[in-house]
Amino acid sequence: MLKLATVFSGIGAIEQALKRMNMEYEIEFACDNGDIDIDIDYKTELNKIKQMGSVEEKRVYANNIYKQKSRKTNFVEISYKANYKINNNNFFYDVKLLDGTDFKNKIDLFVGGSPCQSFSVIGSRGGFEDARGTLFYEYARLVREIEPKVFIYENVYGVLTHDKGNTWKVMQNIFNKLGYYYKWQILNAKDYGIPQGRRRLYVIGFKNKSDYDKFEFPKPIKLKYTMQDFLIDNTKEGNLVSKNSKLIITEKKGEKVDEKYFLSDKLKKYVLSPGTKNFMHPEAEINLPIARALLSTQGNTHRASVNNYVTTDGKIRALTERETHRLMGFPDDYKIVVSKAQAYKQSGNSIVVDVLIAILNNIYGGK
């Protein structure tokens, strides 16, 4: 059984990928703070945690810090636990308070992404010290402490040019020092079965060189569906399922869309306006066959030049929460148990499941 660990776990894209592939796996730990910010001395607290005796003592201590410092609810934890089998003792709140040595050589697959952050760079020597204090540093630290057999790292493709290329330069230097054989590539969701133009950087690292030598990034496949196929007015909830790891529509029959998703005349005028040349892309297209990259802020009202709007019965509307999850590769049996705003945010922050399935097939030979 595959031993899985994730950080920045979100709504469980890799878990969903393994589920859709019918691969047996066990979650050793997941970690996500639900975007709750707290003000603490992380270095001091992590040092305290590393002196503690058991994994459970460490987890309780770290999670209690959040309860003491913030009254906010971790909505990511709610969504994650509603959809995946995980022991309550295996969900952690903060990557910066996680002691990876507790899981050394116990993890087959370690997965996560992190927000793009700039690092200081001194010539070509950028390494762990240059990245210290960033979330990427924490991901790399955990790879070094855990020593998983395979890791998958995901980030926005813009990280390659961020800070004039310095960010990627430091990240590569760190990957080089982890002792792993790794490959990286930009993959687009629309090339792997999902009608969404979403380009992301994927870095795949292997402890074993023979596994590295055998791995190739998946080749693009022909797109079968459009964004319109995934709309609930064309495919009602419950009719988008996963079969043999592929998303299929069981019946092309729609349902009525709630009025709350439709735009008022005032909002419609704003959404369809191009904005200033410095604000957003001028093209305000709707009803695209391939969706624009979903945003974590899609619950807000954005212009059609960056967000996705469609027409139902001649009226313009926003995508529903279910539709945004479909466009990330989550079939309809995924339970949406949080508010509309939180569901939008969580789907926009996720990794595309079908891209991960294509990667996993090439790592594990489709087993």
Any overview of this molecule?
- With 367 residues, the protein is α/β, with parallel strands linked by helices.
- The protein folds into two domains: 2-221 and 352-364, 3-Layer(aba) Sandwich (Rossmann fold), CATH 3.40.50.150; 257-348, DNA Methylase, Chain A, domain 2.
- It has twelve helices and 13 strands.
- The protein has helices at residues 13-20, 42-50, 55-69, 75-83, 128-131, 135-146, 166-177, 209-214, 265-271, 321-326, 340-349, 353-364; strands at 2-7, 25-31, 91-92, 109-113, 150-156, 181-188, 196-197, 199-206, 240-243, 246-249, 291-292, 309-312, 315-318.
- The strands form four sheets. Strands 3-2-1-4-5-8-6 form a seven-stranded mixed sheet, with helices on both faces. The protein has a two-stranded parallel sheet with strand order 7-11. A two-stranded antiparallel ribbon has the order 9-10.
- Strand 12 and strand 13 form a beta hairpin.
- Helix 1 packs across helix 12 (353-364).
- It is globular.
- It starts with a strand and ends with a helix.
